[in-house]
Amino acid sequence: NAGVTQTPKFRVLKTGQSMTLLCAQDMNHEYMYWYRQDPGMGLRLIHYSVGEGTTAKGEVPDGYNVSRLKKQNFLLGLESAAPSQTSVYFCASGPGGSRSYNSPLHFGNGTRLTVT
Amino acid sequence: AQKITQTQPGMFVQEKEAVTLDCTYDTSDPSYGLFWYKQPSSGEMIFLIYQGSYDQQNATEGRYSLNFQKARKSANLVISASQLGDSAMYFCAMREGRAGGTSYGKLTFGQGTILTVHP
Fold it and tell me: Which residues contact A22 (CB under 8 A, 6 or more apart)?
């Protein structure tokens, strides 16, 4: 039972390069999220999706784009990477509707991104 | 204003002793949920315990319990009989709003507390 799988685990980019982080979940969850983790700041929400074909902005969306073409996948894109985007990125998923209220989010193992 | 505040950047505890990790929150919504996650040095996020705003009793899960004081807006995590494997970062998080509402399950996290358990 894989849960939430993120690829890649590590990546180094040069300023201005682009990349896509992949997230896949096998729990049939409606809701999916991208967070970034920075020292002293906890996890902050970048974008989220409440279903296939839908996306919405979170707390820190600038510089990122997302797509959810299939229910099980949620992609995070960086079009022109900046050193400020050096961070650990977490994908998470959770059930939708009434179950979303008291259900925990399930997290992937994170992607460590360094932008030089 | 910070919605979730964890004021202890680091905590130390002796093995087999109990430790309390503090969490205060700020919301005007009467419906909310509070979650605690553990992040060991390997990096994964592990769900520990949940407390709903309407729950009458404090949540417990094995050695974890939540000291929920609604009027003070605090939801402190208590770990009893600490073990070396409890050394990790601990995050408090909040979800606001009712099921089916516009919160869409989003969690807001605190800054985290690093717990070190000494043998």
Answer: A6, A7, A73, A75
- Please write the tens of the pLDDT for every residue from A29-73: 999 999 999 988 899 999 999 999 999 999 999 999 999 999 999
CB-nearest to B110 from A35, A42, A50 is A42
DSSP string, A66-113: EE-SSTTEEEEEESS--GGG-EEEEEEEE--GGGGTTPPPEE---EEE
Q: For B13-34, how does the pLDDT look when each residue is reduced to its tens digit (9 = 90+)? A: 999 999 999 999 999 999 999 9
User: Which of B31, B106, B111, B113 is the best mutation test for A, with the most CBs of A within 10 A?
Assistant: B106
Query: For chain B, which residues lie within 8 Å of any Cβ of chain A, measuring from their own Cβ?
Result: 4, 6, 9, 31, 33, 35, 37, 43-45, 47, 50, 52, 91, 93, 95, 97-100, 103-112
Longest Cα–Cα distance of chain A, Å, equals 43
How many contacts, defined by CB atoms under 8 Å, are there between A and B?
75
